[in-house]
Fold this protein.
Amino acid sequence: MSFLSLVVKNPFRNKTRSSLAIVGIAIGIMVIVALGMITGGLENSTQSTLKAGSAEITVSQAGSSEMQSGQTINQSYVNDLLPLSGVKTTAGILRATNTSSGGSSLSSNTSQGGGFGGLSITGIDSDKLSLLGVDSVNGTVFTNDSTGEVIIGKTEAESLNKTIGDTINLFGQNFTIKGTFETGNFMMDNGIVMPLSTLQNLTSNQDKVSSILVKVTDNANVTTVSNTIQDSYPNQLSTSTAADQANRINQGLGFINTASWAISLLAIFIGAVGVINTMIMTVYERTREIGVLKAVGWKDIRILSMILGESIVLTLLAFVAGTLIAVVGVEVLLTLIPSVGNVITPSFSIYIFLRAFAVALVVGIIGGLYPAYRASRLSPTEALRYE
């Protein structure tokens, strides 16, 4: 047999022990790859969300966030902000979640699609849709004075199997879908947009909006305009810029990446311990064999290379198994849970797989180094007498 054949076949003399070692390492690799795919997908989704839409500033009630359920401000602020320096245009929006019973709560849940908390509905004037990132609509746009027209995000339309001309029941009332849209913002594309006045009536929030979108002039500084708004309405309004949102998202993703690296280090440690144990037992069981090989002329470096190579073969097989399980598992999970699958598209970045491969390789080298060194230092005469 060739040297390479020995390296590939020797680890499987004891199939049970080798299989257990591969499974242990594969679990760590699986977690690294799966977490990397999900984290990368979340990062791509959030980046596309930040890039979607043309409003640079979001204004909400002081002391609350735009997404905080039930918080509203007077619609009069929409026009009050226009004279401020640097403000080009504004749009009030009202956000609600559909209730299948026809209620008017802003935070009611439903089983009708829409992701984690129900079907998201946004109310806005049709001439301000571009501030939401809706630059084009397949079909037609609703009119502001209509009471039974909506447009639906492409992802939600596919989830609910709806198309242009179909009807959908929202708050106990039937609406006609006039068009579909795609913004790249996973939250918007998983929701429905209708006239602001219609949603205000349905939710008993006349003359109220959840937040105000602000588009700044071409030569204006977004931070300066944001500060001007807050200074003009202290303790009344708070602002959030796209940069602020990016920083918050980057901090969250940073924590996830740190956790991913911690898991990688833990996988290296646990995997290395398992490989060391497996390879030491292998060396003990093959002591006489190693003595024979040294007696017929094998050098220490060749013995070391053989044992180290066997260790690396085990970890690379674990890399393949762990990667396949992770890819299949993530795809199955996102398919079985559409509300998650509509939000996150798993990332297949080569960096994720290279990192998992590097972890497997390091585990193989660290785990096999000591057993390989021990085998290379065996005395041929002592090894041949070993029983």
